[in-house]
Amino acid sequence: MIIVDPPLRRSDVARIVIGASGVALILAGIVMAIVAIPPERYASVVVWALAAIVIHDGLVAPLVVAVALIGRRTAQRIGTTAAAVARSALVAAACCTLIAVPGIVVRALGPRNETIHTVDYVVVLSACWVVAIGIAVGAVIAGAMRARHARTM
Amino acid sequence: MASLTARASDRLERFFGTARARTSTPGRRTRTTVVLGRALGVLLIVCFATGLYSHVLQNPVDWLPLLPRPVHLYRVTQGAHVITGLALVPVLLGKLWSVYPRLFAWPPITGPVSLLERGSIALLVGSALLEVGLGAMNIAQWYPFPLSFRAVHFVLAWVLIGAMTLHIAIKLPLIAAHWRRVREDPSADEPTEPRTWPDTPDPDLERPPTVAEGVSRRGALIAVGSAAGVVALATAGQTVAPLAPLAVLAPRRPGIGPQGLPVNRTAAEAGVMASARSPQWRLSVMGPDGSAELSLLDLRAMPQQTVELPIACVEGWSQNAVWTGVRVQDVIALVGAGPDSDVRFTSLQTRGAFATSRMRREYVADPWSLIALRLGGETLDIEHGYPARVIAPGRPGVRQTKWLSSVEVTT
């Protein structure tokens, strides 16, 4: 008989069950990897997963931090609502750009047939950025005017 | 030497401290992470469940019954898989943004538990980023990885969902403490410096956020939500017909292609340009009572059925079309097989991984499972499988074998 002192609370039991399920699912994935992936490819999977972390932590995230630092004073000056509008527009455009990159590469290389990637993504993204920057600039102007108005009241 | 080590350690500590301060902003409260984590969890579970369903359809297991109806089922599940997968891009990046300052904790490892936690987070982040990246690049058909997409995407899905579950267990107290919204406290002292992500969990978990923190948090969530919404709107139209005009970032657009339908594998890629057009083409049918050779005229002389069925691709695009042809069960009846039979279709194609397809009895028994000869009232275009292809309800497009050469009753 195992005696646990102090006795486990219900939340501890839930944690152990959830954690054990997670470990079981990871192990299931590893077993399936052994069955489905040739051993000479294991290193590639690990290297690509590490590369994804390095690209995010070392490139994408610092870029976002840099942009946020540059825009911090403006964001403080124009107020939270205007800053949220400007930020949302720019973040949405950036995410659309990330999604479109593979399609741009395929269009440059030549798609497999003429029913794939029929849209010119560069034109779409240009329009997307014009709209996003327009919204951001509009928000900055509106926010700055509101802030000035509030100061003069 | 010792002083050199101490100096290096001191510098590193200062560097990490500065990086943590620079990357910490008021919106990065634990509550932000929990809200984004909930969205991420829901999207990952939808992706995992729909991906598993797609995998089972492509690799059926005998004990599990499959569902030909409703006819749009696979279209919905695979469409949802790809839309949620793409919406994961902003949500995943937003979640990582909210915890980014944690990367600069110093010392990075404080003991076995912290090592385990860091290891599980590395597994979670690495598998999530790679899984989403592989999926997005695969549907765009730009796949520079030396890895089999199907095998790696499937295996990583299990690792990712397991790592997420383990992460939930590790963070459960924090998740529980920040699950519900707490009103902002206007009387709370605003931090003079931007609030840094707590190195350890906030000492006072019940502390309501200051107004600045609350507003910044909402701003961050609105940005992530807007980005996810825009990404979904700009891609969903490849499978959700009313949104088709907005599908400006989708690899496919409905209505574009021969006979108004997109094509995945072309006749030239499959190496069937000559064999599919040959006047000597015959469909071989093999069953318990022997075999038959059917010409295109023979097939056209049989009772024809017209149905409106979607063609739904694993890559997430789908489109409804009107197909005319002979019921699969009528064809195999010619060789003495009943509708409760399993059959195997073989294509003329000489290149590609989907030259054969097994069709389980659930689909064979469905009167809408056809050997299609016509599309939209016209003879099937060679790019869509001329002279004859399979179309059945609720099956992935890669299993709707084109350029048929034989039908074999297997049980």
From TrEMBL, chain A:
Molecular-function GO terms, alphabetical: transaminase activity
Transmembrane annotation, as ranges: 12-37, 43-70, 90-109, 121-145
Keywords: Aminotransferase, Membrane, Transferase, Transmembrane, Transmembrane helix
Protein name: N-acetylglutamate synthase/N-acetylornithine aminotransferase
From TrEMBL, chain B:
Region (Disordered): 185-209
MF terms in GO: oxidoreductase activity
All copies of domain Oxidoreductase molybdopterin-binding, residue ranges: 277-410
Keywords: Membrane, Transmembrane, Transmembrane helix
CDD domains on file: SO_family_Moco
Entry's transmembrane regions: 35-56, 76-100, 121-143, 155-174
Pfam families referenced in this protein's UniProt entry, alphabetically: Oxidored_molyb
InterPro entries, A to Z: Mopterin_OxRdtase_euk (IPR008335), OxRdtase_Mopterin-bd_dom (IPR000572), OxRdtase_Mopterin-bd_sf (IPR036374)
Record's signal peptide: none
PANTHER family in the record: BLL0505 PROTEIN, PROTEIN-METHIONINE-SULFOXIDE REDUCTASE
Protein name (database record): Oxidoreductase molybdopterin-binding domain-containing protein
Upper taxonomic lineage: Bacteria, Bacillati, Actinomycetota, Actinomycetes, Micrococcales
